[in-house]
Amino acid sequence: MAHPHKGAPKLWGAFFSILAFCLSASAQETYKFASRDSCDLYMDIFRPAEPSSKPAILHVFGGGFITGQRSDAFIRSWADLLTSDGYTLVTVDYRLGMKGYKVGKGLVGAYKAAGQFYRSQEMGVEDVVSALGYICDNADSLRLDPANIVLAGSSAGAIITLATVKALANGEIDSLPEGFALKGAMSFAGAIIGTSGAPKFKNAPCPLAMFHGTADKAVAYDHLGTALRGIWGSSYISRQLKRKGYSHCIYRFTDYTHDVAAYHIVMWPEEKLFLEQNIIQGQDRRVDATLTSDAHPHWTPVSLDTIYN
User: Fold this and answer.
1) Residue 49: pLDDT over 90
2) Extents of the domains making up the chain
3) Domain 10-308 sits in CATH 3.40.50.1820
């Protein structure tokens, strides 16, 4: 749930800033899509130079539900990768449900805060659904196809992404037009928070790609908590989908921590394959890959205590 760069060495911060400056070519449009009691919510749209029939990627930022911005520097760099290949990127706000909330130390503190974590997730889902509804209602003026959207998220944003995917698969969202469905979803270090048991998929979700470090101490890779209250990560979700026979892709980074939450650029080749083959071509392509190389970037490790205490 941590912001992917919290505590990162200055070198990596400078790298992403320079990369964003050098690569940035995508024009940005900004729209207000919802008003809440506490704030207004906006989306930024980055488009390819030429019109394209490829999906729009709607991205939800990370930050532990306490911080983060919809268009951070590394997301702008990712936008250039996407738009240069014909994809539109939409980045959205959501309310930060853990901001100002005191979480006790250790697993006991996290367990006691489970209700607030769950409410933060559900507020995020509500806001993302509002963004999707705004796109549906204004498709022509926004030049976006509601039937061609891939949801993506990092860390807390990946939690919101996976919870939204589950809710849509289970028919739990009735505020979107009848028949609405995501074209696909990508989760970078994501999970689903629950207070009444493990997440279940009653129906097949949209094509899904998950990226997660096996030693992640911020967002559980498998399961953290009790049978009723806790967080169920990518590995657990993958097992449930396999048991149901639902196709998906999962990339497991052995001994990697929460760094994977910021691997949008690092994993672009695999994302590109997923988008082209699973989404555009509609292939029933299933991947369960374990990556053991230490070649990918590392930042200062984060945990629940370093985020909230």
Assistant:
1) yes
2) 10-308
3) yes
